[in-house]
Design the sequence.
């Protein structure tokens, strides 16, 4: 009878320990899944920011080019040179204004 109680006690402790471990395992899995979801959201946001950064860098390059063209025109006009003597790759002022407005 005493041996049976000891065996039942041991079985009860084992089952209790197993239940606790299963519960902790489920909690850890849920926590890991939440972290994975958070990291995925952050990665998506980072990718979006990097894409926007690339677009802004391209626009900045375009603006720098346009500023250089306008500075060249200004320099030429201040030296009395007619604006038609600007380099052939220079866009019209309307195009420059349209591009700047678009940005």
Sequence:
């Amino acid at each position: 009878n005493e041996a049976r109680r000891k065996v039942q006690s041991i079985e009860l402790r084992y089952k209790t320990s197993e239940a606790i471990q299963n519960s902790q395992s489920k909690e850890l899995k849920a926590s890991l899944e939440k972290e994975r979801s958070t990291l995925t959201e952050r990665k998506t946001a980072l990718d979006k920011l990097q894409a926007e950064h690339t677009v802004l860098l391209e626009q900045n390059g375009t603006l720098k080019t346009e500023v250089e063209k306008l500075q060249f025109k200004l320099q030429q006009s201040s030296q009395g040179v007619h604006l038609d003597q600007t380099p052939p790759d220079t866009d019209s002022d309307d195009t420059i204004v349209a591009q700047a407005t678009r940005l």
